[in-house]
Fold this protein.
Amino acid sequence: MRGRRTTPSQVFALTLMVAASGLILAACGREAETKQPQPRPVRTTTIEKRESLVPLTFTGRIEAEDEVSVAFRIAGRLLANDAKVGERVEAGQLLAQLESQNELSNLRQAQAALSAAQGQLTQARNHYERQETLLGQGWTTRANFEAATQARQTAQSQVEAAEAQVSSAHDLVSFTELRADAPGKITATGPAAGEVVQAGQMIAKIARQDGRDAVFDVGAQMVRAAPADVEVAVSLTDDPKVTARGRIRQIAAQADPVTRTFEVKVGLTDPPAAMRLGATVNGRVESSSGPVIDIPASALTRINQQPAVWIVDRATSLVSARNVDILRFDQAQVIVSQGLDAGEIVVTAGVQALHPGQEVRVLGSGP
């Protein structure tokens, strides 16, 4: 079988096609050589060291600045206890009573003894005066006069002793009544009527109206970390909008033997009425932890399975990755303990699209 012959026109067309293809490829090569990668736009921030304030929070309760336990000075059977928790009392108001039959009997006995001593004193004085007159007239002896003088002095001493017994008996009778020594509010009560109580046993607790404290049980580390004369922000646990401020008034000298915490009393300045005695509150203070470096959380990435950031070279605008150590972080901010120095530029937006040695164009500072 004979092959088909190529005509001169077909050869010429094929030559034109090969030449055109060469020109197209050459043009594409020159365009690829002249086209350079564009710098990637990013946002950055310049590293600065600043003083870090670490918040310290703790939970406590509201107590009276001056709270006293009132009790009887003598033992006895409780006749009545009218103290009620939450009741406001005034100075001198009767709170409780003991049965006073024995004390009243002792008072009457002391009064009777005083009357007898006063009668003996009157008789001794009359005898002394007679002996004094007779001695002046020469009708008695010096010995009789001296005996009358001694009898009068003895009777006088017996009267004074009887008066002291009456005063003591009056006191014992008054001790059967328990009265408030200052205005305030009753925060706790003791035994009920009918019980036998001992001297000094708590009958009621009165929170005086002088002021209020926020009392916290704080660990030794937090006590050491809190600066001197620090202001404490206090808020109700169930209603954080109710707030007050105060300063540390007293720190216990010894830790609680069970919890190993120290009792810290914060004197409140003009506490609101909603901060009632016994209410649970939160306290907050800020303690300095020294100079730290913080960066926006958006600047953080991971390289080699470790936290890292992208650093921009000021001279070349090229980026490089660097691993950092994180001290603490939240949703918006990261505190870096190692890996960064003041003055360095860190990429805060566009970090996921970067690679080492890439040129960047800074759009502005900020996250």
Q: What stands out?
A: The CA atoms of residues 9 and 15 lie 10 Å apart.
